[in-house]
Write a structure and sequence with these properties.
Layout lengths: L20 H5 L24 H28 L5 H10 L2 H14 L5 H17 L2 H5 L4 H4 L7 H27 L4 H8 L2 H13 L5 H19 L6 H4 L8 H28 L7 H32 L10 H27 L2 H23 L5 H22 L1
Length: about 400
């Protein structure tokens, strides 16, 4: 998971900035000798291979599907419906991959003194932060740089991940709040419009241009999601069970809240890439290490502060805490682990590709959840599910092909 920093073959893009020996001396790499760059068309000079991206994509979809099915089981079948506590545990679990990654790295250097190893790891992370364009030019984080909060790479990392955590929390809370007012169909269709907002925010925050293929892909993904949500000829079982007062202003309120969540999730993926993505780094492992660390910090922030909201919800009788049974704990654990893996991999996909690609990947999970419902619970997908899923697949294929070209 972490490359040897003395291996530089095929690791430096032609357009990258040059790196002098002085750039590495403060990291204890004075003995590095840079050999002439050898170009190989089969091996990319920057970033992960297509195989790595494909595997990350596969496990992202698998993880989200397992997470959603596990949550549905312990809420609907076992009767332990505590959505906000589930959200708190899931977002806090983002720290788990970081902890496992640190454990792995430490295991590779067991003979190194712990204090020395930790200092080197922190130095590597801070050096990676110093190469981020957003830190170098100060754009989009000026209100932090003008204070004493973020004058250093450490301050920038802590400040930016705190904002990312807040945006992610707004996105998650909006989803559960909207579900109390609107229908599952509306919520699914609106929330998955996050791909559109990711594309919109990418223009001013990342300086990306919206090409024709991107616009078409986003439109197809949104249209496909709408078909899955509304395409059935008759009302779904869940819609039929909706209370009759969930109409008019109630449904409109829920849809507005869902739209806020969609905007927040689209913004979340964009600012994560803006503030944690290394654009001109020599080693792909540095990008991986920083992304995992930043994701882990969001989990740490959630774990440290989110319990306050859980206590308030309990005191106000909005969501009272009930000790889960061992069976619930088992499925809760599955959902937490699957969520931690899938969310971390999704952020890596955003870092390696684009926020739009990551958002469409999450939309793609809608179809696979429908297939899982069929296999596990006998809920046969409708024709609309296949049509909508097909459109989402086409949208994803367009983005993938555009990215490879």
């Amino acid at each position: 998971m972490s490359e040897d920093k003395t291996s530089t073959k095929h690791s430096t893009p032609i357009h990258d900035r040059s790196t002098s020996i002085d750039d590495h001396s403060w990291l204890g790499q004075d003995d590095i000798v840079h050999s002439p760059i050898e170009i190989d068309e089969e091996i990319p000079s920057y970033g992960p291979s297509r195989t790595t991206i494909a595997l990350a994509l596969l496990f992202t979809i698998l993880g989200f599907t397992v997470q959603i099915e596990a949550i549905a089981y312990y809420q609907d079948v076992l009767g332990w419906a505590k959505p906000f506590l589930s959200l708190y545990l899931t977002h806090s679990s983002l720290a788990l991959p970081w902890i496992l990654h640190l454990t792995y790295l430490r295991g590779q250097q067991r003979r190194t003194n712990l204090k020395t190893w930790l200092r080197r790891y922190v130095d590597d992370i801070l050096h990676s932060v110093s190469t981020i364009d957003a830190y170098a030019d100060g754009h989009n984080l000026n209100f932090l740089r003008k204070t004493s909060i973020a004058p250093t790479p450490m301050g920038f990392l802590l400040g930016s991940t705190a904002i990312v955590t807040a945006v992610l929390t707004v996105s998650g809370v909006s989803w559960f709040m909207a579900l109390a007012y609107t229908t599952p169909g509306d919520l699914t269709a609106i929330y998955n419009c996050s791909a559109f907002f990711a594309a919109v925010f990418s223009v001013p925050l990342l300086g990306q241009k919206l090409g024709r293929i991107t616009v078409i892909a986003v439109a197809l993904s949104i249209f496909g999601t709408a078909i899955i949500a509304y395409g059935d000829a008759g009302p779904s079982k869940s819609d039929a069970a909706e209370p009759t007062d969930r109409v008019g202003m109630y449904r409109l309120t829920g849809n507005i809240i869902a739209a806020v969540g969609a905007v927040a999730f689209g913004l979340y993926s964009v600012i994560f890439k803006r503030w944690t993505s290394i654009q001109n780094e020599r080693h792909a492992s540095s990008s991986f290490d920083l992304a995992v660390a930043a994701s882990g910090l969001t989990g740490m922030y959630t774990f440290a502060a989110g319990w306050i909201g859980i206590v308030l919800l309990h005191v106000l009788n909005v969501e009272t805490f009930v000790m889960p049974s061992m069976q619930v704990v088992f499925y809760l654990g599955i959902s937490i682990v699957a969520g931690a893996v899938s969310m971390t991999l999704l952020l890596l996909l955003v870092t390696w590709t684009t926020p739009v690609f990551g958002s469409v990947t999450s939309v793609l999970c809608v179809f696979f959840v429908a297939i899982a419902d069929w296999l596990l619970f006998g809920l046969v997908p409708s024709f609309a599910t296949y049509v909508g899923g097909g459109l989402i697949f086409v949208a994803f294929g367009l983005l993938a092909q555009d990215g490879m070209s």
